[in-house]
Amino acid sequence: MTQLPDPSLDQLFRQARTHNAFSGEIDDATLRRLYDLLKLGPTEANACPARFVFVRSAEAKARLAPALSEGNRAKTLAAPVTVIVGHDLRFYDKLPVLFPHTDAKSWFEGSPEERLQRVALRGSSMQTAYLILAARALGLDTGPMTGFDNAQVDEAFFKGTTIRSNVLVNLGHGEPAAVHPRLPRLPFDEAARIE
């Protein structure tokens, strides 16, 4: 594997920002390409616990609106697409297909809900990061957030299922004028060590 050139690293990390205002449209083919990239990222036992709802229609946005915090409502409703990233607490039902070389389903079936929640939440959080990077790779900007009422989102979009919401990610073409200055990050010596 070769190192990506600096322009690619700029697009994925250095110049990429969390956006608060978006324009444009995103077609079905782009959303499918996005999923086909993000699904390739690793998860524990290849469980792939994340489930994605691409909220684009006016009807779906109206169902999402009451769950949004005041500070996130307007920008989310104006975004071309908002992705609800959820996690399936019965992710292990798919393991015979996703991890077929051993009985991985038995590792989780019958486990306490808190263990299933931990594994599913961790995996869907990883898959959210893959979604953000895949979107950036496809030339889209993102606005991830957790400022919403999970119970309301679950009622509106996942009622009667074992899926629970985790993160929302607005997608579109970001408006640079609405980007806040980049906040600091910890330097290596404060956040990492080599042993």
UniProtKB/TrEMBL annotation:
Q: Does the keyword Plastid apply?
A: no
The UniProt record lists the Nitroreductase domain at: 26-157
Q: Which Pfam families match?
A: Nitroreductase
What are the EC numbers? 1.-.-.-
One GO molecular function term of this record is: 3-hydroxypropionate dehydrogenase (NADP+) activity
Top EC class per UniProt?
oxidoreductase
Which cofactors are required for activity?
FMN
Which keywords describe this protein according to UniProt?
Flavoprotein, FMN, NAD, NADP, Oxidoreductase
Q: Which family does it belong to?
A: Belongs to the nitroreductase family. HadB/RutE subfamily.
This protein is called what?
Answer: Putative NADH dehydrogenase/NAD(P)H nitroreductase QF205_07740
Origin organism of this chain? Answer: Luteimonas composti
